[in-house]
Design brief:
Length: 262
């Protein structure tokens, strides 16, 4: 913990005072992610974290984890008491795992469950080709198109997240100004599109860009997104149950979030 604090905050006061270090962590996280909570045991060891990412009208729970030896004893409940309740104009979103404790916790927050499938595996060779007219560039080069589509498909622009994808060296696939998908290797981080035709075309473009032999990750595909499941099956990908999404409001049909960013 003390070494981690040094790495994150640089040299500072006495690192042997673990509770002081813990407080600094908590303050730093809460400053960057209002409403987030870190939980510590009596020795100052980190035992749990819930990190919220406010994005305009979206409030996304981007991390919830408790030390495996302490799970199921109310640590998660205590931290999530600070997940602000729904209010007009704000949509809470959780990208859940299949852990029964997580499913119970989020259901009790009063959020509606959106069951999901994933399509993860290796593409059948030659099964998918980029459609004519699809282009690829860096995320920042196409930021304006991504954000315009995201406002429509997801209810909020990505803003600074696009810079993060740029720094990670991700690729942006575009189908005119109708569809956009950000991909890192085999991970289709996000997809936003104007309509079903554009959504299928940009998904095919992104799948065609996956390096041969790399595992594709396409996750949190939900009701009303059969277009994505059919495209994945045609490309030879297997379907499996996935952790559901939970949200206050219905979610857009032409928006897929696979990475940590909704
Ligand atoms: C999900 C997680 C963060 C919840 O934190 P937690 O401290 O374990 O959760 P809590 O103890 O507050 O709540 C769990 C609920 O499930 C119940 N529960 C405990 N064990 C259970 C089990 N084996 N099966 C089903 N429910 C169980 C608890 O009784 C509690 O319900 P209650 O509040 O109505 O009594 C934690 O379990 C975790 O880190 N899981 C692994 C990582 C993960 O999947 N994170 C979610 C990613 S979105």
């Amino acid at each position: 913990m003390a070494q981690l604090a040094e790495a994150v905050f640089g040299p500072g006061p006495d690192r042997s005072d673990l509770s002081a270090v813990a407080r600094r962590f908590t303050h730093a996280i809460e400053r960057c992610h209002p409403g987030s909570r870190l939980a510590y045991d009596g020795q100052g060891e980190l035992v749990g974290a819930t990190i919220f990412s406010p994005r305009g009208g979206l409030l996304v729970l981007s991390l919830a984890i408790v030390d495996e030896h302490l799970q199921g004893r109310g640590v998660g409940r205590a931290m999530l008491e600070h997940f602000p309740a729904a209010r007009a104009g704000r949509n809470r979103v959780v990208m859940s795992s299949l852990d029964p404790k997580a499913l119970r916790r989020y259901t009790k927050l009063g959020l509606a469950v959106r069951p999901c499938l994933s399509a993860c595996g290796i593409l059948r060779p030659g099964a998918v080709m980029a459609p004519a007219g699809a282009e690829q560039c860096s995320p920042l080069e196409g930021a304006a198109v991504v954000d315009a589509l995201a406002r429509e498909a997801r209810g909020e622009a990505y803003g600074d997240d696009i810079r993060m994808w740029e720094t990670s060296g991700d690729t942006l696939h575009l189908v005119g100004e109708e569809g956009a998908a950000v991909r890192q290797g085999g991970v289709i981080r996000i997809l936003v599109a104007r309509d079903e035709r554009a959504a299928i075309r940009v998904l095919r473009a992104a799948l065609a860009g996956v390096p041969p032999g790399e595992t594709v990750h396409l996750r949190h595909v939900r009701e009303g997104q059969d277009w994505a499941l059919r495209t994945a099956v045609q490309a030879g990908l297997p379907l499996s149950p996935d952790g559901p999404l939970f949200s206050d409001e219905p979610l857009g049909r032409f928006h897929l979030p696979t990475g940590s960013v909704f």
